[in-house]
Amino acid sequence: MITNRVIFIDALRGFSLLGILLANLLSFQYGIAGTIDIKDLSALDSGALYFVNIFIGGSFMPIFGILFGYSFIKLVESIRRKKGKSLWSILRRGTGLIALGLLHSLLWEGDFLLSYGIMTLFLLPFINCKPKTLFIWAGIFLLYAQFQAMIVHPLLLIGMGLAKKQAFANMESEKKWYLIGALLIPIGLAVKSFSFIEGTFSGMLMAAGSEILAVGYICLAALLYKTRPVQMLAPAFESVGKLSLTNYLMQTIICTAVFYEYGLGLSGKLGIFDGILFGIVLYSLQCMFSLAYAKKFKQGPFESLLRMWTNWSWHRQSKTK
């Protein structure tokens, strides 16, 4: 049971990195501020921009946030099983993410590792909470977040609650919940689409629609995970997910080298549709790299670095058997 659950979480994390890359390509090409008002687009690029905004933009980072909370609890449980001191390990992990985030932000303004590192420290009071308590706090924070920025993102608490409920441990018995959750996809798409029409609450509608859609995507992925077509692709997603930190940072390194002036300087020249194709090619290359790398090593280089800092152990990465 445990193996199946972890493998699915890896696959979902890998899948979310594809969506994050496609959404971030707008920022790499036009800058974060420039994505608000992109002008003089062809019909093809206009359609591609609409597709990214409705189906992808803002809907994959929430998935990553839920998975971060889920993995946070699994890390705490693993440390405690080994009789380790979870508090100091989590503090070191948080500071490690902060350090990586600060370095990453020197390359690109869209970094989220820094904020996740900071949020890790604020998650400490919730470690021993029951799932119900975590969901209640998440609900309170979700309401409050509509009016005020939050230090602790509610989706991380939802992920923590799901981990404590052993969600995805028995995927066959949970199918009815996945089916119900997948019905959120058309609702999320409708809310996001309406945000482009309604002016007063457009930001709130876009945020709400994005998070609704994210939950729908998670449930649909879980529902389809054991089907034959998905199982053919699953190893690639799983490998990317296991090396998620390395792959995320490599996406930035490669994309800034392609689009920024210190590299090829293609910012704003490739176009949105061709940018999507570029993203798919880049992600496919990451899949091939991750599959080959995972045959020899248990973790990626940045994962190993963070793990050594977290565990205060400088042992070299061992090969998989």
From TrEMBL:
Residues spanning the membrane: 12-30, 50-73, 94-114, 134-156, 177-197, 203-225, 245-263, 275-294
InterPro entries xref list: Bact_Transport_Assoc, DUF418
Domain DUF418: 162-312
Coiled coil: none
Pfam families assigned to the protein according to its UniProt record, in alphabetical order: DUF418 (PF04235)
Record key words, sorted: Membrane, Transmembrane, Transmembrane helix
Protein name per its UniProtKB record: Membrane protein
